[in-house]
Amino acid sequence: MSSPAHPRRPEGVPAPPGGHALRIDPRSAVARLAPSTLPVVEETSAGGLVVREHAGAHQAAIIARRNRAGRLEWCLPKGHLEGDETSEQAAIREIAEETGITGQIVRHLGVIDYWFTGEDRRIHKVVHHFLLGATGGELTVEHDPDGEAEAAEWVDLTALPTRLAYPNERRLAEAARVLLIGGA
């Protein structure tokens, strides 16, 4: 995924971590704040790959959602922890909400940790990803309470590297493929 063009940064102001371009309306009060002076917000989410066996192949349910630029991108289902939820509980709930598929945790796959800048703050996001075995449900985005997921599809594990938009998610999908199918 390429970063959109952005104006030249003043000397000594680093680019935001994670490769996300800082885009602020120059007329806003926030535009006068350097990224390092914006308040930092910590966010934790969970999700992952829910996998089924179909016609002799392993398939994962993935979703399509719009990125900040409005482009449709395929990604793994995930979302914020609610209340006292554990990462595992949130992953099961978020995957069910965004794909319609219920699942059971098989194992922890990994953590994706990144930064991005909002209008008035820098966000440090940590996303716990799990491998789940599908236990039921029907593939649909109709139950996504946030309405972010626009489509859901079952995709063969071997095709995920060409479908998933984000390199870190492609690496997690490869780890799941190796666990379920084996090397190379």
> What is the residue-averaged pLDDT?
85
Pattern of helices and strands? EEEEHEEEHH
Give Rg in angstroms.
Answer: 18 Å
Q: Regions with pLDDT < 50 over 5+ consecutive residues?
A: 1-33
Please identify the structural class as seen in this structure.
alpha+beta
Helix coverage percent of residues? 10-25%
Strand content: 35-45%
For the record, give the distance between the C-alpha atoms at the N and C termini, rounded to a whole number.
25 Å
Taken from the alpha-carbon principal axes, the silhouette is globular
Number of strands: 7
The number of distinct helices, counting runs of at least 4 residues, comes to 3
**Major beta-sheet overview:** 7 strands, mixed
Detailed description of the structure:
By secondary structure, this protein is of the alpha+beta class. Helix content is about 15%, strand content about 40%. The protein is built from three helices and seven strands. Strands 1, 2, 3, 4, 5, 6 and 7 form a seven-stranded mixed β-sheet that branches. The two termini are about 25 Å apart. The model is unreliable at about 1-35 (pLDDT under 50).
Record the SSE blueprint.
Elements: E1 40-54, E2 57-66, E3 72-75, E4 78-80, H1 87-99, E5 101-117, E6 122-137, E7 151-156, H2 160-163, H3 167-181
Parallel strand pairs: 1-6
Antiparallel strand pairs: 1-2, 1-4, 2-3, 2-7, 5-6
List keywords for this structure.
alpha+beta, 184 residues, disordered N terminus
Nutshell version of this structure?
The chain is an alpha+beta fold and 184 residues long. The chain has helices at 87-99, 160-163, 167-181; strands at 40-54, 57-66, 72-75, 78-80, 101-117, 122-137, 151-156.
